[in-house]
Amino acid sequence: MAITAQDVNRLRQETGAGMMDCKKALTEANGDFEAAKDILRKQGQKIASKRADNATSEGIVLTQVSEDGTTGVVVALACETEPVSKVEDFKNLAQSVLDAAVSTGASSKEELLATAQADGRSLQDHITDLMGKIGEKIDVVSYETVKAEKVVAYNHSNGKLGVLVAMNHTNGTDVTEVGKDIAMQIAAMKPIALDKDGVDAATIEREIEIGKEQARAEGKPEQMLEKIAQGKLNKFYKESTLLNQEFVKDSSLTISQLLEKTSKGLTVSEFKRVAIG
């Protein structure tokens, strides 16, 4: 069966695949459009399998907060190279991932990927299709949600970093601006936990051992090492836990003090920082 340019163009319009891929698929399928679509999908599956171990260090991070300000979502769609992250189809797919997350409230990445799209096929199917078209690994590398009395989101200008900040109350105060300031603080200062109670035991043990080794290298007596290490650990808490960090816009305040100054009893109950690269 002769494959016409119109046939190839029609398949391209319906699938978004390249002209040569469409022509090859139609030829292999003897002009059967549905069979050709299946061939193109299998091509995506082959690429997904072949590139499964490839690193994905580029992509897009998107955030969205519900209209009532109580629920926030952040998703990260990753690819292998920067040019792909700027392709319109990739951007549209990232938006589809966010839309699915917001509309379904999926409880996990796996549930999100299984979400049915407008054509009845899953979100994962659409990701696989785009892998076949582009020839790179594409993956949802992060999906996080938070719920609180007030949630504020921040997207960095490079499109590769997103932050959600959950605050415990508003008490009639507009806390949006302070929430944005804190989100930007999280983006820049990369806290590992809210406060020292959120730091895992392995990290604490490692920091104590590092403190001891540093003191030992400085010639401090053995009986003083534990005390010195505890002092260094307290410094670590101040630098690495959000509520104890100095506010970057006013170093006379910690984040905890900034929140209390804004509204009595106000605090951050949770945060999510998602970055690609």
List its salient traits.
8 strands; 277 residues; three-stranded antiparallel beta sheet; alpha+beta
Structure description:
Strand 4 and strand 5 form a beta hairpin. By secondary structure, this protein is an alpha+beta fold. The protein has a 3-stranded antiparallel β-sheet with strand order 1-2-3. Strands 4-5-8 form a 3-stranded antiparallel β-sheet, with helices on one face. It has 11 helices and 8 strands. The radius of gyration is 25 Å and the shape is elongated. Helix 1 crosses helix 2 and helix 3 packs across helix 7. Helix content is 48%, strand content 19%. The mean pLDDT is 91.
Short overview:
The protein has 277 residues and is an alpha+beta fold. 48% of the residues lie in helices and 19% in strands.
State the share of residues found in helices, binned by percent: 40-55%
Strand order of the largest sheet: 1-2-3
Query: Radius of gyration, rounded?
Result: 25 Å
What characterizes the major β-sheet?
3 strands, antiparallel
**CA-based shape:** elongated
Number of DSSP strand runs: 8
Number of helices: 11
Mean pLDDT: 91
Q: What structural class do the secondary elements suggest?
A: alpha+beta
Order of helices and strands: HHHEEHHHHEEEHHHEEHE
N-end to C-end Cα span = 48 Å
Portion of residues in beta strands equals: 15-25%
Low-confidence stretches: none
